[in-house]
Structure formats: C-alpha cells, structure tokens
Amino acid sequence: xxxxxxxxxxxxxxxxxxxxxxxxxxxxxxxxxxxxxxxxxxxxxxxxxxxxxxxxxxxxxxxxxxxxxxxxxxxxxxxxxxxxxxxxxxxxxxxxxxxxxxxxxxxxxxxxxxxxxxxxxxxxxxxxxxxxxxxxxxxxxxxxxxxxxxxxxxxxxxxxxxxxxxxxxxxxxxxxxxxxxxxxxxxxxxxxxxxxxxxxxxxxxxxxxxxxxxxxxxxxxxxxxxxxxxxxxxxxxxxxxxxxxxxxxxxxxxxxxxxxxxxxxxxxxxxxxxxxxxxxxxxxxxxxxxxxxx
Length: 294
Fold this sequence. Notes:
Blueprint: E1 4-7, H1 13-27, E2 32-33, H2 35-38, H3 45-55, E3 58-63, H4 85-95, E4 100-105, E5 129-131, H5 136-150, H6 171-205, E6 213-214, E7 217-218, H7 227-235, H8 244-271
Parallel strand pairs: 1-2, 1-3, 3-4, 4-5
Antiparallel strand pairs: 6-7
C-alpha cells in the first residue's frame, strides 16, 4: 500500500511528476501513488484512487497558480463540481483522518476557506510546504523529511541519500559517473572553443583562394589571380596554408557547438534542475484512467 498520495490538478502535472520521481527514488515506487503512473490499464480507477487515498499515511496536495480557478470544458469551476477528482481525493483523506499537506508551487496563492467547498474547507488551515524553481532540491528534501516525521514507518531505500541544496558540496558526487562525464564534455567543448576559435578565424581569413575539401564538401574558390596580384604576391611574405588538422578542427568546433545545447538540456533533465518556464526533461503527464479529469 502507498504511504504518500500525490494529489494534483492538470496544469500542475509536471510538478506532480517531479515529486513522484524524487520520492519514488527515495522511498520506492510502491510507497508513492500518483494516478498518472500508478493506475494500470484495465484497473477500476475509482476503486484504485479511493483505496490508495484511504490507505495512505499522508496526502500531498500540489497547489499551483490556477488550482482554485481552473475550469472544465463547460466553463464552470472544477472545484465547485462534487465529482472533481482533486476535491474528492482531498475530501476522502479528511474523512479517513489522513494528514493533508498543501505543496505550494512558487508564489501560488493558497486558497482561503471561503474559496473552498465545505467538504474540503479545512484545507485552508493546513500548514503548507513550499516547492519552487529556485530551491527545488532543498524543498524536496524538506518534504521527504516531513513525510518521514509524519509516518516513521517510511524508510529511505538503501543507497538513496538526502538531496543537498543546489550547489551543495555533495552535488558532484551525487551526479554519478555518466552525468559527471556529460558535464565534463560540455565544459571541455566550451573551453576548447573559447581558446581555439580566434586562431581558427585568423587562419580562415588568410586561406588562399583555392578549392579546399572539408568532410567531402568543396569550398568555393576565390577570384582568379591577375598579373598585378601575382607580382604583388612575389614580394609579399609567403602565407602558410591552413593544415588539414586546422580545417578539421573548425568542423569539429561547429559540430560541437550545435551539440552543446541539447547536451546541456539532457544534463539538466538528468540532474532534475528546474528552469523558468516549461521544465526540461519532465513531460506533462495526464492521468491514464479514463474519466479522471483534473
């Protein structure tokens, strides 16, 4: 049976996925219930959801900016509908005597009792925990600690460690060798590009006017030489043509520069860093059960 039930509305799905992944990593997948992951095809989703709520130790209510005002296809406020699953799950938790912890996303406004239906009006008096982009790692660690305090039977899985705050001294070790290698490669590309690009540009500017093939593509030749230019070049110091390694390195830099952005995106996704706007590496997951509208 799950110990933690993640309650969320559709627009806050990405944050629910983040919580689910982090808490699953710490406590195990069987300890965390999120409808979009935990309900399997063919399950009776009504029974699965209500049973999971009633057997959980704590319900985390993820509250984003539009949590109170979200409307359905008919234009009516979802929270005013007695069949709204977000409302039903919270009401079921209160009826079962299960602690409900609001998780405030960023600067979202927490609802007042007057904005809530009577069956979940108690939510306005529940102490919340914050979760924001700027301090996501530390916020998740605090949430994990509070879950253990609320239910001492919850145990971290062997090998799982506390998530230090962003920039903490243990962060590099926590990334693991594959992520360390990805970060190192990205940094190496940036350093090499910064050190080599000025020289490559200089050599490229002085490239003689003749066709040069780079990775199978021919570069166009410059203007034809004239007797005047030939006489001038006879007295001018010889220009050293770029070596194949220089030309090849130019192509490598261009290729690496185009790969840096997706590599950094992948690293951010692996490290679960949160950026402003849509979160890289976290798709917005909707509940899989038919009829579950959030």
